[in-house]
Amino acid sequence: MRAIVSKDFFLSQTLPIKKIDRIAISAYGGDLFGTGLGSAENFRIPAHVLEPGQVILNTAEWCSLLARVQNWPASMDIISLK
């Protein structure tokens, strides 16, 4: 799964989501979606989807993704997850 997203928009929607056990991330149809498994947390972000797909991340992987996006030097970049 690969999608180009806005750093600021992604972080504004996702930084509040930290207390999750697992989160499903999917990219298709011009959006990046996230749903906390076992919680009511979710988000939808406009994206340029390069490769549609879905992944499930644990808490450590989710926090790592947030940290990577926070460190992007550009305002837009590619989220690539397998």
From TrEMBL:
This is Uncharacterized protein. It comes from Sporomusa termitida.
